[in-house]
Structures
1.
Amino acid sequence: MRMNSDLRQKARRVTALLEEAYPRALCSLESTDPFQLLAATRLSAQCTDARVNLVTPALFRKYPTPEAMARADLEDVESIIRSCGFYHTKARDLVEMSRQLCELHGGKVPESMEALTALPGVGRKTANLIRGDIFGLPAVVTDTHLIRIANLLGLVSTKDPLKVETQLRALLEPEKSNAFCHRCVLHGRAVCVARRPNCAACTLAGECDYFSNTEGGVS
């Protein structure tokens, strides 16, 4: 890996390019409040955001709050979210998470990393998304798109989510880190697709180690 000062400059250039390409850096999960975003993010594990967005309207009509979800019949929640996959575990986590939100946090989604990751089914990726999108805190959400693109660019040299988070925190401007992650997801879906990246159309090609090291990058 290059010296951090060089990588920080590169990260700033990549950030600017992504800002230009994707002005609206929004989470693709649809929600109307912190609880709904937390629940939707739990459902998104091993599932597409598009599928989650098809499922959550019915779920939140019936169980719109932590109080309602905490009292939910587990089998009913399972039946609603079945198409999201791993529905037994996800339903159990949603109900227990809601119960803990009510009992420990007054029905509110907590802000701290420690409190969030203590909730059932909530890891650092989900916690960072909530901290960034809901509380406006610096956050690095280690989505698979982010991990892949950061490695291709040469900003990181690991696929371990915690190491990626730690390394990117050292490179990204804190106030732009959360939006950077959302933009990488958008770029990963639109251009830098897994196993078939469209380098010819990539706005990041000039900054990308993968591109410069492949035949397409040779002038």
Note: The two ends are 24 Å apart (CA to CA).
2.
Amino acid sequence: MTSIVRNYQDVKELETLRQHGTEPEKEFRQKTKTLLRSEENERETIAREIHDDLSQPLTAIKINLSGLLRSIPEENIILLEKIEQILDLVDSVTGAVKRISVELRPGVLDDLGLVAAIEWQAGYFQEVTGIKCEGDMRPIDINYDIKLSTAIFRILQKILANIKEEAIATSVRISLKKKIDKLYIKVIDNGNETTPAQILDHLPFRLMEIFERAHLFGIEINTTGKINGGNTITLSIPLN
């Protein structure tokens, strides 16, 4: 087994190479922190507006169309078929609205907490990608505030997105364990080994966001890959 990214310091060095020293690190961190917070606030606002402004009207449209369908004589086949087609379209749009809203801000994270949200994300990832995703979510009593829970959840989302795009995996396993003063989250896939070159290539985008979020909340990330395929990413999060 070869270590691909030992910890945040490794990625920090790669990031410095990317910046070519054009911006002081402290200023860069502050800008990133502000950007990530603004993004999360926008996600929450848009998700709420989508639910309020689109979901409810679509439900009302479907109810009215269903009532209209029942009132049309059976012999008017053409009109009945048209209304049924419109109902199918409304269902399709409603499904898309729900999917977009959930991806922006899953309600389970706010309502049931981090562990339930990770369980949901594993199932949702499998449903959307077709990649088998199992979860080992033992009952864990953790009381992170919503900002840290959101950061952890977003990091996990980005890791899964990276697996889908880069690892070409057929199965993923997510496990949670609490030991003494830390929570450990492991994401194991059976895809292609992640190389340092791949990390450097994608650092300004998906992976850079992962490590920036981790840095802001004191989360350690360790990544190892096997030569014959497969990667393990471990998040170490202080319980206090």
Note: Helices lie at 8-19, 25-71, 77-104, 107-112, 114-129, 146-167, 196-216.
3.
Amino acid sequence: MSEETTIELGEFGKLLKEKNFKLKALGANALGTEMIELEPGDLVQVCKELKRTKKMSFLNYMTALEVKAGYQVIIQIENHETMEYLVLKATAPKNNPTIPTLTDVFPNANWFEREAYDMIGINFDGHPNLTRILNPDDWEGYPLRKDYIGPVDELNRPLSFKN
């Protein structure tokens, strides 16, 4: 019989729990950075709270990927003065891959969100210019989705090997 391991909240998780945000502690990454999973609808308010109370004022990176539960964004925010970092994750369901935009909190989220939209199809509600950034405007589909089938044309055709 196995027991489920409970991961304790770190400093940021405890602060957010006190503010009644629904979250899940994910432990620390290989560099020791605390990781927290949030509801997509709480992401903006959590970032605003951390910016206000902990001076987490810089969005270091954002990426997106497909997981069993849906499409997940992963962001790292930081405080330049204290060199504290935090990783936040939020997963939107596959049938409605929508997450509120962070562009009002972190202006540099603009291009990160456009890339996530272009490559995996996450809609960032309230984004000022949610258009493709890597693929042509008329591109069909989202290349990083597991069910994506790319175009077949002169440059993208199946390989054939002759013996």
Note: The longest strand covers residues 58-67.
